[in-house]
# Entry
Amino acid sequence: MIRRKFSLAAAVVTASAISLTACSGGETPAADLTTVSIMAPFLEAQPPSADGAVQKKLEELTGKDVNIAWTPNSSYEDKTNITLAGSGIPHIMVIQGKTPGFVKNAEAGAFWDLTDKLDDYPNLKTTFPEIQQNASVNGKVYGVFRGRAPMRAAVMFRQDWLDKLGLEAPKTTEDLYKVAKAFTEQDPDGNGQDDTWGITIPKWGALGTNSPYDFIETWYGAGNRWTEKDGKLIPSFETEEFLEANRFVKKMVDEKLINPDFATFDGTKWNEPFFNGKGGIIVDVDSRVSVLVNLFKQADPNNFENKVGFVGNLEGPDGELHAHPTDGYSGFLAVPKASVRTEAELDKVLEFLNTLNSKDVAILLNNGIEGVNFTVEDGKAATIKPETEEGKVVNTDIKSYPQLGMNVKGNEFYPVKQATDYEQQVFDKRTEVMARDLESAVYNPAAPYVSATYVAKGAQLDNIVADARIKYLAGQIDEQGLKDAIKLWNTSGGDKVKEEINKLWQDNK
Amino acid sequence: MAAPVVEAEASGRAASRPPARERKNGRFSVHFAHYKWLYLLLLPGVLYFAIFRYGPMYGVSIAFKDYVPFLGINGSPWVGFQHFQDFFANPDFPRLLWNTLVLAFLNLGIAFPLTIVLALLLNEVRLTILKRTVQTLVYIPHFLSWTIVASLSFLLFALDIGPLFQFLNTVMGTNTDFLSDPAWFRPLIVLQEIWKNTGWGTIIFLAALATVDQDQYEAAIIDGAGRFRRVWHITLPGIRSTIIVMLILAIGQMLNTGFEQIYLMTNALNREVADVFDTYVYFVGITQGAYSYSTAVGLFKAVVGIVLIFGTNALAKRFNQSGLF
# Structure
């Protein structure tokens, strides 16, 4: 393992040597910023083509030479740190979240504080100040956040099973239990065998990562990561509702309504039991609805409708809807001080970001080029079929370019027109359900705050509770064991985290 | 180019007993001049080690600093032994140490002797074609990555449907989920290690076995020694020094419990017994960005490794007068 450390250092040395040569042409005096360099992640198999039509159009619209260092997502955090440690730092860096590494760098002064700057630029002035606040580090905004749909929690189920058993779509957590029980015990696939179960949950332990457990806890009223009680913030897992929610899940595990290998089941195979008719329910983000619909469509294009049903967040036992939102952002675009040295230079970079966040560029990044790969039909982007050679490149590239999009004023690009009427219906229903749930969203009151202790050992601390939760559900420990783990969280440093978060919260109220 | 060498040599010889220090310097320059082409050949190797092995060790200094990438290795503040103190005081420390040591000794105590046993068995096979075939077959698993080994394990031991899950539970009359039961974590890891690396490990022992004097076997047969007697009195003493060298090397690697393997087999239900130094360093260092702290942990592990190597070497020398160095 120590060798890893050495090779990390070696990588730093070589990486900086390489970037020195790579960027020797890009370092222009920023008084007249002609080339803008950006570091961004890509999740596809290939980065976008450097001389593709999207890149050319982007340079045309922004009036700059845009030099994007596409970096594989899997090693992005490592590369970020290596880049910051070396020279040849880009003007703009996509930062994927408030990781401990980022917070340390930011507090050491690696990035410009943009808190008082962004409102001067029409396209950077957000219409969602609470999300900008969530993305800040204790109120300091170190980047332009990348807006994402804030409401995504959904329950999806086999509609054909539901219809066969004559059941209604679940509205409450109690309904979820009833449907799961019926799916397990009433032979919903009609093959005469006891070979189905209710909910499929994959190996997914970590706290506050929008897991099925997190959703159910929020629906029960435990809050979202942190919750206010008696004028103080406490972690959700210290509420009575957290225990109730987990008793509820444990009951389903004990009655075999949940796949028995939930602690080890591979998350990449999550769709398989649903598609193959083994487990009829998935609790996840709503985008999976369309993925599932598409799976059935590919298997049988003539008979895929009414296989997948879904609802949004479920009402808890108290009869109220506590919807579980995400933080509403996925990282931010930050400006390193090492490459942008003066305020004048910073203004130029922010001007560029302002253009990058204009409607025209948003359409380019997300939809592509009108007439080449899409046309506008009733305010929606319809993909041109069959795709031309040029359109194909654009369609591939726009899978990666949205990484540069910020959309701090909401999505200004066109929604994608779905391939069939049924899929369009599903998509529209998703939009509608999520918009409705957003009104009942329970936000994380501690989202903007970063506690020093949590930065140092938060992940280890949270693991104590996260593992105990799974152990409790699997029957390895009892409820007292779960409570003991929460106590251990407190004594191992959680007390300090609570103290620091509460102080930050009070100070910023 | 040969002329200066000869000259230097000549002058070196000509000097009759100069004062000690001068003589020494003189000798070295003579020596160097004489072998300069050999030194030149050595140079790439030295540079390689200096640049890629020793140079990066400078980075170890972040174990004594509060490293922030933006500030760089030199700019980060010095904190001395703070990270080591934190680690030793951490409640995770005894658990990590215990898990690492238990796995290390299980691997050393079971997998290592099995390698020798397999080599001896192969050595006793007289039919060459059979021997070669078996050898090739047992080498193959070594070339599969841990990801594949873990995936195979997941398939074989899958809850309710895995063939080994069904077989073992039927035989034992239980209903154990081997993949998540903490009691089965270590047996699984050792089993995987044996399956993957035992065959490969026999190579060196087989080479050593080939050097054992065949006449001794003939003599032993004439004296009426059976197979086990021959193995015990001739084969094993014949490869004793190889076994000791391999043991020393294995002990040096002992704490490297195999990051990939353990990482892949860990889940929330067995983490209690699965966490070892390697996975901890990854978890804390890479996913939490605590570079200094995890470097300190890694450095501690490396120091223990060095102590173990020297310790075993000293013990081996004491008892057998033959060590690794």
